[in-house]
Amino acid sequence: MERIQKIIANSGYCSRRKAEDLIKAGRVTVNGEIVQELGRKASYGDTIMIDGKALKKEEKEYILLYKPRGVVTTSSDDKHRKTVIDLVDTPNRVYSVGRLDYDASGVLLLTNDGELTNLLIHPSNNIEKVYLVKIDEAVDPHALKKLEDGVIIDGKKTAKARVKVKKIDKKKNKSLIYLTIHEGRNHQVKKMFEAIGYKVSKLKREKFAGLDLHSLKSGEWRRLSVHEVKVLYALAKKN
Ligand code: URA
Asked: Which GO molecular-function terms appear in the entry (predicted)?
């Protein structure tokens, strides 16, 4: 279930703000009933009409982008920086499933499928994310163990995680660590490393919900296959 103005905006008909105006003006019906409260919810299966015309369901798009560093994960940026939406070519109003920091790179899913987005970002969903983390120090493997058990960030312990060392180079003072998590808290990976005394110098998401960067270069993107979308739905609905 989703707020009606969000369903209308997700269909690409107009912005959420404009949809709210249409609702307040009594121009929107859900299954034949005029709805004028902004808090009301509907499901994607309900028939929503605006001025008596059924809301057209925009064709669903699923794009996997290899987000480069130095690009923001929003559709518009007040500092006029390049956004992830600028990198893809689609007539549809897609948005990102979750976020990657401006200075982070890697797998980012873009879609106009609000239902799938909600399923994938819901905290109970346990979607797996694998990050490759670079630290400009030779990290202590014992400290890494703490990440697996959970560390306190923003006053709350992180869930169990998996750590795999790719490289710890004592001579060059550099480490590359894989961290697998199932949550999506704000700046989670950077904060987890900060909690054990290390600053992340580079961050790349290698995998999201089983999707990886295979065959893509930084800045490139591709559409998901029908099969990949089915697998994502199955994964998202499992929990
Ligand atoms: N964790 C972070 O700290 N940043 C990201 O972009 C993603 C996960």
From this structure: RNA binding; rRNA pseudouridine synthase activity
